[in-house]
Amino acid sequence: MADQSAGAAASAKGQGQQQEGLSNLLHEERRYPPSAEFSAQANAQADLYERAAADRVGFWEEQARALTWAEPWTQALDWQPPFAKWFVGGKLNVAYNCVDRHVEAGHGDQVAIHWEGEPGDTRTITYADLQREVCKTANALTELGVGKGDRVAIYLPMIPEAVFAMLACARLGAPHSVVFGGFSADALASRIDDADAKAVITADGGYRRGNPSALKPAVDDAVARTSTVEKVLVVRRTGQEVAWTEGRDVWWHDVVDRQPDTHDYEAHDSEHPLYILYTSGTTAKPKGILHTTGGYLTQVAYTHRYVFDLKPDSDVYWCSADIGWVTGHSYIVYGPLANRATQVMYEGTPDTPHKGRLWEIAQKYGVTILYTAPTLIRTMMKWGEDIPAQYDLSRIRVLGSVGEPINPEAWVWYRKNVGGDRAPIVDTWWQTETGGLMISPLPGVTTLKPGSAQRPLPGISAEVVDDRGNPVPNGGGGYLVLNEPWPSMLRGIWGDDKRYQETYWSRFPGVYFAGDGAKKDEDGDIWLLGRVDDVMNVSGHRISTTEVESALVSHPAVAEAAVVGATDPTTGQGIVAFVILRGNVAEDRASGDEIVQELRRHVAKEIGPIARPRQILVVPELPKTRSGKIMRRLLRDVAEQRAVGDVTTLADSTVMDLISSKLPSASSSEG
C-alpha cells in the first residue's frame, strides 16, 4: 500500500488570518487506502454509515440485539437533555454476556486471557475458567456482605483477579470503582469516600520495573481515613509482608478459593449503574463518571467488533492499557469479552527486563490486533526501529492508537515498524465520559490519513463549532461537540447532577462539549488538537500545541516533543518546546545550539513563522503520568520559571528536576 502523496508535504499557510476558531495550519497529505483483500473480509462495510444515518436510534437497537437480554426494552431512547436512558425497561447481566453465554455456546475451551506477569510467570485462562473464577468471586463478595447497589473499590495490578473482580461486581449489580494502582493513598481515600465504598479489593503488591511495588499500605492508609469500608479482600501476588486488620482484612485465597464455582445471576435493569470511574485531576474533588449497563455494553461491544475488525475464532487481541483507566474497562474487560475475544494481558512495564518486551510478548502469543498509546509509540521511536525488527510481528493485521492525538510521523513509524507497512491504523478519539469509541476510521472502509481520527462512527453525531456554537466550514478549526445522545454516554457525575450539567453542557447549551479542540480538513475529516486548555494565543493566533508537537516530531532527529505556551510581553504567549532526541543523534550535536536552531527553522517551515518556538529545550525525559499522558501544566511551570506544582501523579517525579536544570541553557534567539 504505497504512499500516494509526494511525501510529508506539510506546508504553511503563512501567518493566516485571525479567526475565532483554532488556527488550522499544519497539513498532512499522505493517504493510505485499504487493500482490496482487507476490505473484502472486513466486518465493517461502507453501508454501515448509510444504515445508521437512515435511522440512528434503530441502528443502535440493531447493535443492542447482538447481546443477550433477559427482558426486552420497551423504549429505545428516553432523552431529557442532558439526561439519557437507553433501552428502557430492558434487563440483562453484563457478566453473563461477557462469559457464560460463550461457554453455553460451546466455546468454554477457547482462551479468554493469555496473562503474562512481569517476572515471566504466566496463566492461561479459558472462558470456562473465567466463568468458574467469576462465579467464585461473586460468591465470596456475597459472603463478605456485598449486595446489589453496594459500591466496591478495586485497587489492583494488572493481574487476572482484576478482571474476575470487575465481572463479579457486574454479575452482582454492585457498581465498581477501579482506582489505578499507581495512585496515592490520598487519591484512593477520596474515591472510596465519594462512592461510599463498602469493600476494597486489593493485593499485597504488583511488579513494576523488576521490583515488587506495594499496594496494601496505601489501602490501609486510605481506609483509616474513611468510614464506610467493612471488608478488604487481598490477593497475594508478591509475597510482601503486609499489615493486617483482623475482622476486616481477608485473603483472596482463603475466601474465594473455597467458594462454589457456580452462581445464579440476576438480570439488571439497562440503566442500573455498572461502574464509577474517577477522572484523575489533581485539583478539587475528583469527578465520579457514572456508566450504566445496557447502553454501555452495547456500544463497547459494537465499536470493538467493527473498529478492530475482530474475528473471535482466529484473532489474538492486545490492548496495552491498565484496567485503572477507561480504556481498560471498555477495551480489555467489557468490549472484548462480550465479543468472545482471545486477548493478551500484561502486568508490567514495556522496558522490563529489556526494551523489546512488548514485541517479545506479541511474537509469543501471535498477536494480530494491537491497541496502544501514542506516548508508547514515540518512546519506541526513541529506542530505535532495530528493536521491533528483532521480532516476528507478521501476524499483526490491525493497529490502534488511543489516549491523545497521534503525530503523523509517529503514525507512519508505527505502521512501518510494527504493522509491516500494511496493517491499517485506527486512531480512536473518545473519553472516560463517552464510555466507548466515538470518532475513528473503520479499517477496510476508510482511506487513512496519518494523525486524523477522521469521522464519527456510524451512529455517532459530532461537530466542530466556533465560539458561538456554529459549525465551522471544512478547513476551519474550533471546538469538538457531540450533538446527539449515544448509548455509552456518562449518565452523570456520581452524586452531583449540577456539576454534570455545568461541566459538560453549559459551554454550548444543549450539546456536549468534550473540552477538546479540533479542526476539519477540506474533506470534512476531523483532526483532534488536544485539550482547549493546551491552546496557545500567539500574536492573536490560537495555535494548538498538538500541531507544533507534530511538526517537531516530523524532524528526523526528534523522538518526542511537548509544547506549552508561556507568557510573553510582546506576543501574549510564546511557544516553549521540550524535545527528546532520537537515540541515533550524536551527543555533541544533541548538546549544542545548532540542533535547537534547526528545529526552530523546521517548525517555521512546516507551519509558518507564527509557530516558531521562542525556546526549545532538549531534555532526557518528559513528565508523564503512569498512564503515559504528558503533564503540560508542570512544563508551563518550568517555562514560566515558577515553582513546579504537585508531582505526586508522575510515573517518575525526578524528571522535573532534570528538566528544570536545563532551563538556563535554553535558546531564545531568533535564529
Automatic annotation (TrEMBL):
<feature type="binding site">
    <location>
        <position position="327"/>
    </location>
    <ligand>
        <name>CoA</name>
    </ligand>
</feature>
<dbReference type="InterPro" id="IPR045851">
    <property type="entry name" value="AMP-bd_C_sf"/>
</dbReference>
<comment type="function">
    <text>Catalyzes the conversion of acetate into acetyl-CoA (AcCoA), an essential intermediate at the junction of anabolic and catabolic pathways. AcsA undergoes a two-step reaction. In the first half reaction, AcsA combines acetate with ATP to form acetyl-adenylate (AcAMP) intermediate. In the second half reaction, it can then transfer the acetyl group from AcAMP to the sulfhydryl group of CoA, forming the product AcCoA.</text>
</comment>
<feature type="domain" description="Acetyl-coenzyme A synthetase N-terminal">
    <location>
        <begin position="46"/>
        <end position="98"/>
    </location>
</feature>
<dbReference type="InterPro" id="IPR025110">
    <property type="entry name" value="AMP-bd_C"/>
</dbReference>
<keyword id="KW-0007">Acetylation</keyword>
<keyword id="KW-0547">Nucleotide-binding</keyword>
<dbReference type="InterPro" id="IPR032387">
    <property type="entry name" value="ACAS_N"/>
</dbReference>
<dbReference type="Pfam" id="PF13193">
    <property type="entry name" value="AMP-binding_C"/>
</dbReference>
<comment type="similarity">
    <text>Belongs to the ATP-dependent AMP-binding enzyme family.</text>
</comment>
<keyword id="KW-0460">Magnesium</keyword>
<feature type="compositionally biased region" description="Low complexity">
    <location>
        <begin position="1"/>
        <end position="19"/>
    </location>
</feature>
<keyword id="KW-0479">Metal-binding</keyword>
<dbReference type="Pfam" id="PF16177">
    <property type="entry name" value="ACAS_N"/>
</dbReference>
<feature type="domain" description="AMP-dependent synthetase/ligase">
    <location>
        <begin position="105"/>
        <end position="494"/>
    </location>
</feature>
<feature type="binding site">
    <location>
        <position position="542"/>
    </location>
    <ligand>
        <name>ATP</name>
    </ligand>
</feature>
<dbReference type="InterPro" id="IPR000873">
    <property type="entry name" value="AMP-dep_synth/lig_dom"/>
</dbReference>
<feature type="binding site">
    <location>
        <begin position="427"/>
        <end position="432"/>
    </location>
    <ligand>
        <name>ATP</name>
    </ligand>
</feature>
<feature type="binding site">
    <location>
        <begin position="208"/>
        <end position="211"/>
    </location>
    <ligand>
        <name>CoA</name>
    </ligand>
</feature>
<dbReference type="GO" id="GO:0003987">
    <property type="term" value="F:acetate-CoA ligase activity"/>
</dbReference>
<feature type="binding site">
    <location>
        <position position="539"/>
    </location>
    <ligand>
        <name>CoA</name>
    </ligand>
</feature>
<dbReference type="InterPro" id="IPR011904">
    <property type="entry name" value="Ac_CoA_lig"/>
</dbReference>
<feature type="binding site">
    <location>
        <position position="555"/>
    </location>
    <ligand>
        <name>Mg(2+)</name>
    </ligand>
</feature>
<dbReference type="Pfam" id="PF00501">
    <property type="entry name" value="AMP-binding"/>
</dbReference>
<feature type="binding site">
    <location>
        <position position="531"/>
    </location>
    <ligand>
        <name>ATP</name>
    </ligand>
</feature>
<keyword id="KW-0067">ATP-binding</keyword>
<feature type="binding site">
    <location>
        <position position="558"/>
    </location>
    <ligand>
        <name>Mg(2+)</name>
    </ligand>
</feature>
<feature type="modified residue" description="N6-acetyllysine">
    <location>
        <position position="629"/>
    </location>
</feature>
<feature type="binding site">
    <location>
        <position position="553"/>
    </location>
    <ligand>
        <name>Mg(2+)</name>
    </ligand>
</feature>
<feature type="binding site">
    <location>
        <position position="516"/>
    </location>
    <ligand>
        <name>ATP</name>
    </ligand>
</feature>
<dbReference type="InterPro" id="IPR042099">
    <property type="entry name" value="ANL_N_sf"/>
</dbReference>
<protein>
    <recommendedName>
        <fullName>Acetyl-coenzyme A synthetase</fullName>
        <ecNumber>6.2.1.1</ecNumber>
    </recommendedName>
</protein>
<feature type="domain" description="AMP-binding enzyme C-terminal">
    <location>
        <begin position="547"/>
        <end position="629"/>
    </location>
</feature>
<feature type="region of interest" description="Disordered">
    <location>
        <begin position="1"/>
        <end position="28"/>
    </location>
</feature>
<keyword id="KW-0436">Ligase</keyword>
<feature type="binding site">
    <location>
        <begin position="403"/>
        <end position="405"/>
    </location>
    <ligand>
        <name>ATP</name>
    </ligand>
</feature>
